[in-house]
Write a structure and sequence with these properties.
Elements (H helix, E strand, L loop, with lengths): L2 E5 L3 H15 L5 H4 E4 L4 H8 L9 E6 L9 H10 L7 E7 L8 H9 L1 E4 L8 H14 L6 H11 L3 H15 L6 H7 L7 H9 L3 H13 L4 H23 L5 H7 L8 H7 L5 H5 L1 H13 L4 H15 L2
Parallel strand pairs: 1-4, 1-5, 2-3, 3-4
Helix pairs in contact: 3-4, 6-7, 7-9, 10-11, 10-12, 11-17, 12-14, 12-16, 16-17
Length: 321
């Protein structure tokens, strides 16, 4: 049955998948009649159109964005969904897209998953370097770009989990290479290595590398990263590190228990977090959160962002010594 559910925070890859489906289903000459795009609260209208036959050649695609039925499904909409899905036109496709994960407990989610195609487009977390490298390698192969091992490493560090930028950089490298292998020198010359993140800032702070932390902070500010967003990432990261370290010092070794206590969605991440905090203590990590709370107050009180952030960076490095 032609029902599709695409979800995940990677809006670029999700959007590409939507366009691929649209190109495969809808005849451009009849697009005005056979392509419909609806907001999430217009489900009934979308279902009515999806059940009707397409005009002319090609098929019909009805796209519902951020459909509320996957987070809260009123009985009336659920009944209409259950009634309509078995009677969709053979050449009609019904597409749902969501940024967040659909609630798997809802009958609407179970119904769509049972009869349709569900695809996930989640961003790879910045700390999962192996998966990021695999993603770069896969997208490079799709672009027919051959990367040397150093070039792959450098490109991964440069773009992180930004798939839109990765695709643009690979297009640039493909034009440059003209079928030849791309080395690290070419990546360094053509790709701006400015993918510093707040996670890298947190890692530099944890390592006590004040100069590196200030350099990463400068790059983030030059890229207009919101100061409160930087502060929020630091709070979340240091809070997680503190929980993990407290549990380690308490003798806890069960990664599932640590993940549950620290509110870590992926228990597989616990191993890496344990390695990251093995050279510090809960006492030192506990000194950081009050500094970050003071930073939030300073930013919301109108203190100049750069001065407030730089001051916090230096205080955190000192607190972790």
């Amino acid at each position: 049955m032609p029902v599709h559910l695409y979800w995940g925070e990677d809006a670029y890859r999700r959007g590409q998948a939507v366009e691929q489906l649209r190109a495969a289903v809808v005849d451009p000459a009849w697009e005005a009649f056979n392509f419909g795009r609806y907001a999430g609260d217009a489900l009934i209208d979308a279902l009515n159109q999806a059940a009707s036959a397409p005009f002319g050649s090609g098929g019909r695609l009805v796209w519902v964005e951020e459909a509320r039925i996957f987070s809260h499904c009123p009985e009336g909409e659920l009944a209409e969904l259950a009634r309509t899905l078995p009677h969709l036109h053979p050449n009609g496709h019904l597409l749902f897209t969501l940024q967040s994960k659909p609630d798997g407990r809802l009958k609407s989610t179970k119904l769509v998953a049972k009869v349709g195609e569900v695809r996930e487009f989640s961003l790879i977390p910045p700390w999962q370097e192996a998966k990021l490298k695999a993603q770069v390698q896969q997208m490079a192969q799709e672009r027919k770009v051959t990367l040397s091992a150093p070039a792959l490493q450098l490109l991964t560090e440069a773009v992180g989990n930004d798939t839109r930028r990765l695709d643009n950089e690979l297009e640039k490298l493909a034009l440059f290479a003209q079928g030849r292998s791309v080395d690290a020198e070419a990546v360094g010359a053509l790709v701006a290595t400015t993918a510093h993140t707040s996670f890298q800032l947190a890692a530099a702070l944890l390592a006590g590398e004040a100069a590196t932390a200030l350099r990463v902070l400068d790059e983030l500010l030059r890229r207009n990263e919101p100061a409160l967003r930087i502060q929020a990432v630091l709070v979340n990261q240091f809070r997680t590190w503190l929980w993990v370290r407290v549990l380690i010092e308490a003798g806890e070794r069960d990664t599932q228990a640590i993940a549950a206590a620290a509110e870590i969605a992926n228990p597989g991440r616990v191993y890496y977090l344990q390695k990251e905090v093995e050279r510090t203590s809960a006492l030192r990590l506990g000194r950081v959160l009050p500094i970050l709370l003071g930073l939030e107050v300073a930013l919301k009180s109108g203190r100049p962002e750069r001065a407030a952030l730089e001051s916090a960076v230096l205080h955190i490095v000192n607190a972790l010594r």
